[in-house]
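Query structure, 405 tokens:
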């Protein structure tokens, strides 16, 4: 994965004898060593005919943070003032990190009285420039901010969704939840939220008695609204309890021929919903619904018709073309069937729906011998399956319903 882009803001006139040129070259080298990509806008980087401010705006837009070399020239530079103003705007919107590298010839008093002082630069992390031959202190001081930029530039949508929810949690609760999950304490609250999101989403089988995940959720909840609390519970428990390998095997079914069939040994269809959510790799799970089988003649025809009715009523899918569109835009529709996948049943479903659907058969463990050669998931031990579902139900009931907030 490419490293974060760091916008290098500075002003260095040609031929000047201060520290600005050595600092620029050293910081570019340091950023490269740390796996980052310096974003430098100067005359050499401009495309012929490109406007200077447009180039700065483009560079800032592609960056994940900014490092400002505070020289005596930078204090008087309109370009640096504009760059810091853009960074401030982004910081208010999405926590855009800004690091100030103070050169020896600039005092804090001079900085605060300059054109940069009106933007309150003293609120930013300030790192002293020790000289080009002693960069270990600089590396140590800016590494947390670079780690934050890495976290912001990478990660899945689910991770960033959890980070978003954690923004409203106070620092003490974050620290207590992190200690419970074994997440190292970070001095930067934004970086702590990323670390904690990774801890909440890490695969973590349930433990008898006191469980770290449940204890951490108790520290973090409730959030400001029931929808946010419910989503945090569902995402955390689902990712912690459903094995990643199982989710990958379920996604692998999508690359098989028709019909796409997976078999899950489980006690309830609630478990199937958790597996679908984990396999989706998105904050929202793939669309899915349950079609229970009823005894009697015409069972296959009845099942095919009910699937068609559900697709039309719930998802506005009425033919193969709209089914393909839905799969392309949102992923497959998963049909949960609480019944072993006998040969006639699978054949009938494949004929009626040759693409766009994934059939997930939920089977009691004692009936697994009748599931044929279809992709068979491992499932969870009964007590862990029940703990997963019970945890979601209890926490959602307490924190994720309007009456509880």
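Result returned for the query:
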């Amino acid at each position: 994965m490419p490293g974060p882009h760091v916008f290098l803001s500075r002003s260095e006139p040609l031929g000047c004898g201060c520290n600005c040129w050595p600092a620029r070259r050293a910081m570019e080298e340091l950023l490269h060593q740390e796996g980052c990509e310096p974003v430098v806008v100067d005359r050499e980087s401009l495309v012929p005919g490109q406007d200077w401010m447009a180039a700065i705006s483009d560079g800032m837009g592609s960056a994940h943070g900014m490092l400002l070399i505070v020289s005596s020239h930078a204090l008087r530079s309109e370009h640096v003032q504009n760059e810091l103003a853009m960074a401030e705007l982004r910081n208010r919107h999405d926590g855009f990190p800004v690091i100030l590298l103070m050169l020896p010839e600039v005092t804090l008093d001079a900085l605060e009285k300059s054109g940069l002082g009106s933007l309150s630069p003293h609120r930013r992390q300030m790192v002293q420039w020790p000289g080009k031959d002693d960069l270990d202190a600089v590396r140590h001081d800016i590494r947390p901010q670079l780690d934050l930029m890495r976290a912001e530039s990478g990660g899945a949508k689910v991770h960033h969704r959890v980070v978003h929810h954690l923004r409203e949690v106070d620092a003490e609760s974050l620290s207590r939840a992190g200690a419970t999950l074994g997440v190292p304490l970070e001095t930067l609250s934004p970086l702590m939220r990323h670390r904690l999101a990774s801890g909440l989403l890490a695969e973590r089988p349930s433990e008898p008695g006191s469980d770290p995940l449940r204890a951490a959720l108790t520290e973090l909840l409730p959030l400001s609204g029931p929808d946010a609390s419910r989503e945090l519970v569902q995402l955390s428990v689902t990712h912690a309890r459903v094995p990643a390998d199982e989710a990958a095997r379920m996604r692998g079914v999508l690359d098989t021929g028709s019909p796409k069939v997976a078999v899950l040994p489980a006690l309830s269809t609630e478990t199937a919903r958790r597996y679908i959510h984990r396999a989706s790799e998105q904050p929202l799970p793939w669309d899915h619904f349950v079609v229970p089988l009823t005894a009697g003649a015409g069972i296959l025809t009845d099942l095919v018709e009910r699937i068609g009715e559900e697709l039309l009523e719930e998802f506005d899918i009425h033919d193969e073309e709209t089914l393909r569109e839905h799969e392309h835009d949102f992923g497959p529709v998963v049909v949960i069937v609480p019944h072993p996948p006998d040969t006639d049943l699978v054949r009938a479903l494949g004929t009626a729906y040759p693409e766009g659907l994934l059939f997930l058969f939920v089977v009691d463990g004692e009936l697994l011998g009748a599931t044929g050669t279809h992709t068979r998931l491992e499932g969870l031990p009964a007590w862990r399956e029940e703990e997963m579902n019970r945890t979601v139900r209890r926490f959602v009931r307490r924190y994720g319903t309007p009456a509880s907030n």
